[in-house]
Amino acid sequence: MTSPMTAREIVAEARPAGSERKGTKMGIKRILVVDDSATERHMLKDLLTKAGYDVISSENGEDAIVKARHIKPDLILMDVVMPGLNGFQATRAISRDPLTKSIPVIMCTSKSQETDKIWGLRQGAKDYVVKPVDREVLLAKIASLG
Distance (Å, rounded) from C-alpha 64 to C-alpha 76? Predict the structure, then answer.
């Protein structure tokens, strides 16, 4: 387990606010990927980077809340099953915090039951994607939010 990032490290990881990458939609440029699986984080980062997005990663809900507050990404992709604060709890915290409530969250999880989807949306998520992620479906959902 890695140690929590300092505010300076968080700011250093974030790209300057005005920077744009080719291929991104106007509204969404920087995406925070939250997943405790290094493989999933790598896969999503690769997919999103190739689509022209800047990607920041987080491996747990607590760190995601800190990064959301300091970096202010344009979108958060949130796993549900994680140690400590799970994705539902982190989404609820982000969607109710005045500093982060405008950041859309897409739940990105292996939990495929309709009740899980409903619960995720009730916590403040704007959309829900089931793993394994279909590249085109995910990019279309991101574009619809931008």
Answer: 9
